[in-house]
Queue: 4 jobs
Job 1
Amino acid sequence: MYRRYTATTLIREIVLILAAIVFAIPLVALVNVSLKPVNSGTGALTFAWPPTLDNYVQAWEQAELGAALVNSAVIAVVSVALIVIISALAAYPLARVTRGWSRWTFYLFIGGLIVPAQLALLPLYTTMRDIHLIGSLAAVIFINVGTGMPFSIFLYTTFLRELPMDYEEAALLDGCGPVRAFVSIVFPLVRPVTGTVIILNLVGIWNEFFVPLLYLSGSDNTTAPVAIYSFVSQYVTVWPLIFAGLVITVIPILIVYFSLQKYVIKGFAGGLKG
């Protein structure tokens, strides 16, 4: 439907343009500093000329970003896959069963959003130590799955409650069991919320610093954020190398985000309907 261009529309466009500029300034500063010589004394928004790519080479070699990116990718992919599978399977009966235990179990999962993660640091660390997982990627994966499930189950459950049961009932009448109906009918229908769950958890896990630092300390394993932190010391902080490392590590997650962005708002909005 055609809408007239009014003064209100102009004001909204100006506000959006200004907001875009404000959000773009940190990104410009990030890339700009990464292209400056290490000993450059100019400000973050003073454009580097001539630009240099030496910082990227040094950041890659000194921080061993190659191995760190592989570890980050393994942790992120395995964690997100487990979160999607477990959360979707848990949300299906919570959304379809109307008994009291289903409602209270759903509230129990939601309680995981309220409890501060810091309260569980000591018992979780001692548990991982007792089962000899400190220093392994499995420890970080377990923690990520546990912390990512409550919100993911919330999104899946509320989305499924708004999803008609017609296709499932038809599949059950044709002889499909509940598991087959879920895999073949229900899970493809929740693709928008699955994309939202993937991207939200992936961004958080990829950028996670404290958990890998705590559980991988003293081992040969490290992740990209922890590797970049190696350029920070008590007396010297090499900002061009840090920013170059940040640019390198942000590129993979940006590619994934732009690939899934059409599902993010759709799935998030659908998940909040319930």
Note: The mean pLDDT is 83.
Job 2
Amino acid sequence: MRKLSMEELNRLTVADFKNTRKFPLTLVLDNVRSLHNVGAAFRTADAFAVEKIWLCGITGRPPQREITKTALGSTESVAWEYAPTTLEALQQLKAAGYQLIAVEQTTGSVPLPKFQVQANQPYALIMGNEVFGVDDEVLALCDAAVEIPQFGTKHSLNVSVAAGVVLWEFISRMSAGTTL
């Protein structure tokens, strides 16, 4: 066994990536304060061919050194948009037919493995602030909430790790038996 070279990985160029079909998933960052988490979200969105990232409220926007360092160039490949409030972004997404899914532990949240993902339904996955989670006003607009089952002593995962877990779960179910 050996590691594959960059040439063997056969990755798309940024231009080719921008023109390739994406999964009908949008990642919404609700007042995420860490620029490193924002950069990691970009990198994960690139890896999973996500349509767009919405950066809302106090969430940092490129170009910023900490975002760029973690994103490794994915701020150039992944489409993104800024909204002064998460509510504004969600209203646009709802009007466009997206199902709004909070990634949050709530009284009505569904364990991620039990959530029924529809292959062609566009989803907006809302990731909350590192300390306060998804804002209560934002939760009120959401169609559902999912939570990642955890078995340790901590009550939550880092927001960028949680985004990766949830995106992978949605994408693996959306793409079962299909390719992009």
Note: The longest helix spans residues 159-174.
Job 3
Amino acid sequence: MEDLSHYRKSYEKSELLESNIPKDPINLFNRWFHEVEDFGGNEEVNAMTVATIGLDGFPRSRVVLLKKFTEEGFIFYTNYNSEKGKAIAQNPKICLSFFWHSMERQVIIKGIANKTSEITSNNYFESRPDGSKLGAIVSNQSEVIPSRAFLEENLKQLENDYEGIVIPRPEHWGGFLVTPIEVEFWQGRPNRLHDRIRYTSQENFDWKIERLSP
């Protein structure tokens, strides 16, 4: 048995007050994102956990990279035939979460995921290195394969097939836009009296702002 009860930390780096936040969560996310990036404590500030409800009824989460955020929401890319792709197709209600330990901050986003347009997916795919493009083609993501060698041999074959020519985006690969309906910002504070501010989307396109007890 490993007792971890002595693992303790006091959170004292910042605060989150209603007097100093914007009226919408995207602007606050943008501010926090770049503050964390400028602080330099997170190597991949765009790393986030995507949680879905699987086809078997169990929740499942995994870390992926956020590739864009706008007033409309948050975009990431994946194989639509993967486990998470199939889960989203069946139930588009998903959760994104960011934990930025360097700034003692967390953001939790509940939203609805929809496929991005083909143009958006094509534009991002074209910006990727050729190795990443071929990786998207060769990988039947989440499917069982016999060995690592099987994957590498198929990649070598694709490298020969596409040498000197444009690599097209496979139809089963593209983006998801997550439109937020609720965004919670968590700022660590001393004595576990953390700041928690929740934005909830309203029908008139405004956001309801509430403080939650830690």
Note: Strands lie at 47-53, 59-65, 68-70, 73-79, 93-100, 105-115, 173-187, 195-201, 207-211.
Job 4
Amino acid sequence: MTPRDVSGDDSRWSDLDRPPLNAAALRRGLVREGGLWSGFEVVAGTGSTNSDLVARAAAGKAAEGAVLVAEEQTAGRGRLDRRWTAPPRSGLFFSVLLTPGDVPVARWGWLPLLTGVAVATGLSRAAGVDTALKWPNDLLVTVGGEERKAGGILAERAGEDGVVVGVGINVTLREDELPVPTAGSLALAGAVSTDRDPLLRAVLRSLEEWYERWRAAAGDPTVSGLQETYAAGCATLGRTVRAELPGDRSLVGEAVAVDGDGRLVIATEEGVQEPVGAGDIVHLRPA
């Protein structure tokens, strides 16, 4: 699907509770000399900002720090190729291009976890909502005493030296608009603000801070403080979980740690501690 530029969207005020992003003001506030963000574009709609940015990077049309935001995604993807859809302007749907060439590739797996920490930190500051992270990259909020997913992160390689990280956050999604009962939004979680401009600015500034800190430590999750901060905000740790693993294998046990490679360590009843690097995690009981 070809991206539609915001300026050509005649229906952008169709929902007055959901005004469009102020692209010019956001660009002025985020793109600055010496900063990470090198470009900032908002399109009215596209299939997937991740797919678009990966294609631009492959064609040499995007530099590190490029940010692509869509007011609506019609083919957004989550982990395991799950679809991510939401009404126009009801959330923040964006992708960024990172090229951490001075960080060993073996540590690039920390980028989605780093993004989760940055998103949670930025939203805590700007929305006043308590958030938690479900390993590896879901953002959880509390609605009516229940944990619900309000956001997700997807990282994809872009050529030999790049990674595109996509973020989707439900901001003003209403109860009757939820795709599944386990979904939530910042509004439903009682956010003090659902103005998407300051929310996006706070998230991107937080991401810049964490990325630069991680990069300065050559991607070391301990030196950068990333591993400790992620663990402190991870709702998965201390819980009994079921990991649905590749090859139709499952593993049940207590999530006891996130190791130096960003893997979830699960302790089974047999006394074995097994690190899980990929899979779907189901929380079986509260911490």
Note: Confidence is low (pLDDT under 50) at residues 7-13.
